[in-house]
Amino acid sequence: MNSAQVAVVRHPASPVAWRQRASHAGSHAHHRASARSASSSATTTPATTSATTGAEAPPCVVSWAAARAIAPSAAPAAGWGAGWAWGVGAGAAGATAAGSCAAGAEANGAWPCAAAPPSCAAGDEVAGGSLWAHALGAPVSAAQASAATNAWGTAQLMAAADARSSSALSTTLAERLVPAPRAAEPVPPLTPVAARGGAALLLGLFALIAVAAFAGGATTPGRAVFVEVGIALLALVAVALWAARTGLGSAASPLAWSGAGLLAALAVWCALGIPSSLAPDASWNEANRVLAYAIAVGVALVAGTAAPRAVALGARAWVTVAALVALYGVATKVAPGILDAGGDEPRLHVPLETFGALAAFCALGAPVAVRLAAVRGDAATWRRLAFLAAAVVLLVALGLTWSRTGVLGLAVGSLVAIGIGGERLRALALLAVAVAGAAPALAFAWSREALTLEGATLDARIDDGRTLGLLVAAGLLLALLAGFAVLRATRRTAAAPRRRPGLRGWVVLAVGGGVLVAVVAATLVSDWDTFKGPVQTSPAQPERLTATDSGNRWALWEEAAGAWDDHPLDGWGAGTFAVNHLRYRTDEVPATQAFSLPMDLLAETGAIGLALALAGLGCLGAAAVARLRALPAGDERDLAGALVATGAAACAVALVEPIWEVPAVTLPPLVLLAVVAARPRPGAATVSATAFSDPEAEPGAGRRAWGRLALACLVLGAVAASAVLPAWSRALETSAAETAADVRSTGQELETAASDARLAADLNPAAASPLQVASAVAERRSRLLEARELLLEAADRQPDRAATWEALTHLAFRLADREGALAAARRALELDPMSSERRALARQAEAALAPPESSATATGTPLPAATTP
Fold this sequence. Notes:
The chain contains 34 helices and no strands. The protein has 869 residues and is mainly α.
């Protein structure tokens, strides 16, 4: 056996081995045919060897489509004995075989197994040549028939090996030259390592979501660093599993990957705007955040394919995390003496930082919990009831936030989750049971002053908290009993047919959505002036749930529109609304976001940034909906519909609530949509795992894979460093600021604080706040000129930061620099014209420049005489 035959025996699934075998056999047969044709004495040819040995005999089934595709590759000028150049290059006899078979197929329409060349079964070259000559209507020599038979058999086995290869090697020449009907894309085989790795990646994402939620939403660099670095590590694990050829891959469509790519492009756009941004450090943080979103989507697109039952796993993991967060929040109201994390705040926001963020978090989890309770499948009854109890806890926490945007998100999510899934009556009944279970506790909490008024005593909150806990427990018990009754009443035998929700589901969704939009529009039209006006209700009262004012959102949207009008294409820089708000506001109400994702993006990143964000989110959502529609009726489709509902609810909430800046709220819908988009299409062919484990499938493939892993390490390491540096800088800055503010700090402590503040400024060269802290430390050390230099450096970094100019004004007063104080005060007032404190500071600077004791009347200088008519 030659080297090519040995390679085929050792690696029968390797297409490269078969191509090498074809090249060797074809070339050998071509030389033999040429030698025999030159000899006039050779009138007959003994039976030649076939393309393979007896153990390698090709199958007797001929694919005329493959031969038809190969036939055009024969060189016409050289005739039927011309060379066949394809792949590694087969010999001339390969073209002879392909051309003969293709011509026979053209003449007879098909070449069934019974009409296959006799040499395919018996190795009779002469008979094979006669049959091909009959099909072609032209004589074919025995040598050509021998070469054709030899190459044909090898080509058949080579095509069979191609069919078992990976997606990069599985496309045969026939499929390349003759387009086949569109079919479901192949799904890489799931080895145990890949399956476990996919599940671990998915669970790791939700573990990071839990970390973000209990870290206040991970809105600051110091808290977001754990989430961003964790996502980068998960991505690195995914690349390592792929490089190890475990079969880890993704069945997500190009549309879904385009969504992740567009989000990454948005992160790059945010980073490109750092040099010209009003707040470069904020733009850096925003770029890190958006890039983490894009990487998380990419990891979920891989995990959604690899993890077994990824839709159910993702739904259960998300509801578990959401229920734990909601349970902790409710516990702070039930036991304020033990968990006094929220202080005397009447509205619930713990463990997140804002009420709206917690409300959105719960609104995204409740519909999925209800759908998990309504699925049939093989889940035990107790598990369904556990998810129903989770829905009750989520609704209680949502009600304690008194958030109207949370109610909006719950309505949209429930409508989509129930409308596009099956078992609508069952799911609707369980949703009603969950609402009824939460009602007693909410009715009590809304009626008690200790739970609704700010400043209530701890004793009063403890007493009412105990009653609230008993009502929550009673509501859970009633919900479990009622839910068990609903499950028993709506149970169905396994043999009963399950009809896939088709047009009726989308009709329900359209009608329900139309009704919801009509109700909201009618309410706004009837009270449009109230909606545009200032806040009419106290934020600390449950009555705000029925209020029609916008909560000052309209004024913020006008500010964002004004900022966008001044910079329509590129915006002022990502994360800069807090700075721009000081310029465009008409009152002294503070704000850091425009309370609307589109308006925030327009003001900060311009039309380009908004287009990238909408395109990325739209592609991801469209890919998820496409896969949802392709799934057959059943529990997986119902759960996938609930996961898509989280995306719809998040979009509705993002229109009126700043959740984009809260990773704990933004990551769940992005990950869940990616999981649905990554599910394989039903009926997709699975590629044999042997093709992925072939060490000689492609020369240098292993080296390239590990090279890409090394490149991924560098890129993801840079991503992690980009997240770590601002967080490290912020930690040092905070420590130095605390030392400077402590009057008991010693000289050694102040010296350490000064070095920490300077290091913080070096770690984050885009930030001005570390330099301002360093200036405060220098003032404590009575180094006023050094403090002034540090503030001027901070103003040079961020010339549009009003706080820096205000600090310069106060320092100028200490240095008796009246002109410098006036210039700094005027610049601070220019950047924040509505601030009463900065107006007073400017008046003080003007008075210091021309004090009353130096006026004309005080010095006795005669005043100009008054003119008389």
